[in-house]
Amino acid sequence: MTPLMPKRRRPWQADPGHIADVPEPPPMPDRQGELVGTPTPASQPGTPGREAEEVPDDGEAKHRDPASVPDPSEVEVPRALAQEIRRAMKRYPQKRSASIPALWAVQRRYGWCSPEGIRQAAAVMGVTPGYLESVASFYDLFRLEPQGEHQVLVCTNISCWLNGADGLLEAFKQEASAPGREAEEAPVDDVFVRGFECLGACDIAPMASIDERYYGPLTEDDAATVIDQLRSKQEVLPEKRLEDRPIAGEARATADKRVTKHTVNKVKGKQG
Ligand code: FES
Predict the structure, then answer these.
(1) Could you tell me whether strands 213-215 and 191-196 are parallel, antiparallel, or unpaired per DSSP bridges?
(2) Which of 64, 75, 69 is nearest to 17 (CA)?
(3) Residue 216 CA, closest ligand 1 atom number
(4) What is the pLDDT of residue 96?
(5) Which ligand 1 atom is nearest residue 157's CA?
(6) How far, in Å, from the CA of 163 to the mean position of ligand 1?
(7) Among 33, 58, 77, 154, whose Cα sits 20 to 30 Å from the Cα of 179?
(8) Is residue 157 in contact with ligand 1, taking CB distance under 6 Å?
(9) pLDDT tens digit string along 219-265?
């Protein structure tokens, strides 16, 4: 806890995450004993006496008020989505801590973090859409634009790379954009493929995350099978699914219940 502000006047306790009102730190003496860090009036935009030409005019957009917290009565939120977000909020003392699970819920429902989805989550959480958007734009796994119905992330980090990840990624890319497909079939960008950094499952290298489930070790031949299964809505490589591998020390393959019972896996396919 900072000693700079009395306990009862710490704004982030009343509204965690709101940093706009946090006061400037007090000036600190430098080596010569001079106080430094005190903002001079002329250094602040909009201060009387400040030269007009010093204020940068970057157009209207930058000076617009940010979107406020949406009024829940004005935003229609699908019941299942609202319930999932509220469940996540209950797990944390501060509602903003549920931002990541809330964004996941939005992404699972709409396939990406659409502006409307973010607004719905913001209405449920009582935060601004801008706040959730800033969280989503920070993390690589959140999509801020539509990227196809299915997503294949091939790990290209060290363990997977040593085991042929580059060839695997190339095979997935080729299969996903296979020429010669009939026009009436699913569009070629229905499967989004990209290389990714270590996904934390190095023991099954080379591996990939396919629609948020881990599979490995994969071969280049698996790429065609996977793309085919995704497009024909079949189960993807059940024998290579990480969640169905035996838990360490077990004689036979039984699913790890910590994975199968995880909300992510339970929610899949039950959106209403
Ligand atoms: S290097 Fe691929 S999962 Fe870690």
Answers:
(1) unpaired
(2) 69
(3) 3
(4) 92
(5) 1
(6) 10
(7) 154
(8) yes
(9) 999 999 999 999 999 999 999 998 877 766 666 656 556 666 666 56
Is residue 168 within 6 Å of ligand 1 at its C-beta?
A: no
Per the rule left: phi > 0, alpha: psi between -120 and 50, beta: everything else, 91 is alpha
160 lines ligand 1 (CB under 6 A): yes
**C-beta of 159 in contact with ligand 1 (< 6 A):** yes
CA atoms within 13 A on the CB side of 200: 1
Answer whether 199 contacts ligand 1 (Cβ < 6 A): yes
| Cα gap 229→175, rounded to integer Å | 12
Ligand 1 mutation pick, 154, 168, 169, 202, max ligand atoms within 8 A of CB: 202
Structure tokens at 20: 């706009």
Query: Which ligand 1 atom is nearest residue 165's CA?
Result: 2
- Structure tokens belonging to residue 101: 């699970």
Atom of ligand 1 nearest to the CA of 158: 1
| HSE-up (13 A, CA, CB side) for residue 122 | 24
- The alpha-helical segments, DSSP class H, found in 152-212 are 158-162, 165-176
- The per-residue pLDDT of the chain, averaged, comes to 79
pLDDT in tens, 136-190: 999 988 999 988 889 999 999 999 999 999 999 999 999 998 665 555 555 556 8
First-to-last C-alpha distance (Å) of the chain: 44
- Give the chain's domains with CATH numbers: 72-138 (1.10.10), 150-262 (3.40.30.10)
Task: Classify residue 233 as left (phi > 0), alpha (psi -120 to 50) or beta.
Answer: left
Full-prediction pTM beyond 0.85? no
Point out which residues pair with 29 in neighbouring strands. 35
User: Residue 243: how many CB atoms within 10 A of its CB?
Assistant: 15
Query: What atom in ligand 1 is closest to the CA of residue 159?
Result: 1
